[in-house]
Structures are given as C-alpha cells and as structure tokens.
Amino acid sequence: MPLTPAGKAAYDKNMPARAGDRARVLIVSKRDSARASRVAQQAERALSGKTVGKLALEVSIVEWSDAAALSKRIRGKRVGILYLTPGFSQSELEGVGK
C-alpha cells in the first residue's frame, strides 16, 4: 500500500496550528527486525520531500524502546503523524494508544 500523507492527514484541519512550520512524521521501527528496518527506510524515502497541505514533512526514524519513551518523544518533538512498522505485538500497540 503506497504511503500518501495528504490522503491520511489532510482531514485534520487543526494540523497547521499544532504542527507549526512543518508536519513532523515519526516512523517507529522494531529493534533487531530486518523487516521493520527495511520498511522504515522505504517509508522515509517515500515521504521525504512530500507535503500535507502546505506543510512540508519532516521525517525521522526511531527504534522502539517502550510506550512511555515514545510518548515523551512525540510530545517533545511535536510529532503530528506516527507510522509504526510491522512487527509490534498487541500489547505494544495498546501501549502506544494510551
């Protein structure tokens, strides 16, 4: 499935106010997973240079450690779009959702 940030985030009319000068995308990859790393790199390439509305995307990749660390990073970096690579367990996904 192709990554199309405009299609996924364009509905969020408050994105410009929250994002500031750019829309920050955080790609979260499972540690020690070749597949997750490959998907993260592919997603980064696919999203680089793209925009959501008039906002340029700032794309970065981080390796998963735990939900608390991810939450702190999301708040601290004003991440507006989160992309999780394959391989997360149900409990990890539930932790991200809290």
Low-confidence stretches at least 5 residues in length (pLDDT < 50)? none
In round numbers, the mean pLDDT is: 85
* Proportion of residues in extended strands: 25-35%
> What order do the helices and strands follow?
HHEHEEHEH
SS content category: alpha/beta
Number of helices: 5
Give the strand line-up of the largest sheet. Answer: 2-3-1-4
Tell me the Rg in angstroms.
13 Å
Largest sheet: 4 strands, mixed
Description:
- This protein has 98 residues and is an alpha/beta fold.
- It is 44% helix and 26% strand.
- It contains five helices and four strands; from the N terminus they run ααβαββαβα.
- It has helices spanning 5-9, 15-19, 34-47, 67-77, 90-97; strands at residues 22-29, 51-52, 55-63, 79-84.
- It has a four-stranded mixed sheet with strand order 2-3-1-4, sandwiched between helices.
- A hairpin with a 2-residue loop joins strand 2 and strand 3.
- It is globular, with a radius of gyration of 13 Å.
- The two termini are 26 Å apart.
- 18% of the residues are buried.
- The mean pLDDT is 85.
Q: What descriptors fit this protein?
A:
98 residues, alpha/beta, 5 helices, 26% strand
Summarize the structure.
The chain is of the alpha/beta class and 98 residues long. The chain contains five helices and four strands.
Write the layout of secondary structure elements.
Layout: H1 5-9, H2 15-19, E1 22-29, H3 34-47, E2 51-52, E3 55-63, H4 67-77, E4 79-84, H5 90-97
Parallel strand pairs: 1-3, 1-4
Antiparallel strand pairs: 2-3
